[in-house]
Amino acid sequence: MRCVLHIGTEKTGSTSLQHWLYDNREELEEKGICLSKSLGVPHNRLLALYFQSRVDDWCKEHGLEDFDKRRTALAPALQSLRNEVQHARERCHTFLVTSEHLHSRLTERNQVEELFQFLDSLFDSIEVVCYVRNQADLVLSAYSTALRMNLTRTLADFASSVGTEAIYFNHLLSAELWSSVFGRSNVSFRVYEHCLDLPDRVVTDFAENVLDIKNMPGGEKNLNTGLSPFHAAAFRQINIRFPRWPADGWAGKMNRRLKRVISDLPVTTRRRLVVPEPQEILRRFEEKNALFFQEYGDGTNHFSPERWVDRQPEGLFGFEEDPDLDEIIRVLLEQTLSEPPRPRGLLFWRTRK
User: Fold this and answer.
1) Confidence class of residue 248 from pLDDT cuts 50, 70 and 90?
2) Which of 51, 305, 307, 352 is the most buried (most CB within 10 A)?
């Protein structure tokens, strides 16, 4: 049986793709393509969690920061996967695993090698599929995600700190790692920007070019949307005043509750965050990107500074250009904190629906 291993990357439509896959699970199985229930639905995150050494937000929230304790807890999921694969052989030719955390969490060779050894014991062949995105847009999306957790830095500071040796942003390093373990011919890299004009973006590209199936029902677009300047500024202030960790502490609970309040506010502006000096970021990675596309692409550097396209509507700009937002956010936080709690717990009345 063939295994298709979709490893992301993050910020390349993985959420939309995963929801589409599991929404159409029965139709895919009729075509000989199986998905896992054991690894987490719709994102198969448990596979990455078992092999990663990094302690991320999931580990903290589930009390599994200790590596051995985490492996013990996740071992049954891997055994269930073995059983799934064995049963799937009777009716399917392809088993699909999808998790962008495989790319972002497994950054050391020994981790990827251990993953390969495990999958190699289950499947006859393994095809790794990875979507890549230009670093300027990737920085912006990564910043939005980090704000949802506990980041307190400004966008400009975050963007300036991104170095070319960070494997999360350096596609050449990532390609060399996965290709050296799984084999160059078994790893393919697809450009996310090339999917943006397709009817369902990455969903369409993956269905037609990876799974070789046509005329499948479309999927929902933009399930993992970015933050507005207002929400980004608010989240940063919340993280400064109420650190997210430990999650069960008073500040951690306030962090999550305040973000829910801010997220529900009827913000009328259509502005979106804009990364400062995107061409400068791409110039920073220009040599690495050129080598990446020479070795793993068609030879054209699709992420050169000259090729970057601003896909934001005209007139949109970053929150740091608006001098009134900090004061607005300060007032909102004070109003929220001053609301009397309901009799049960600390849930504020305005957080309830």
Assistant:
1) confident
2) 51
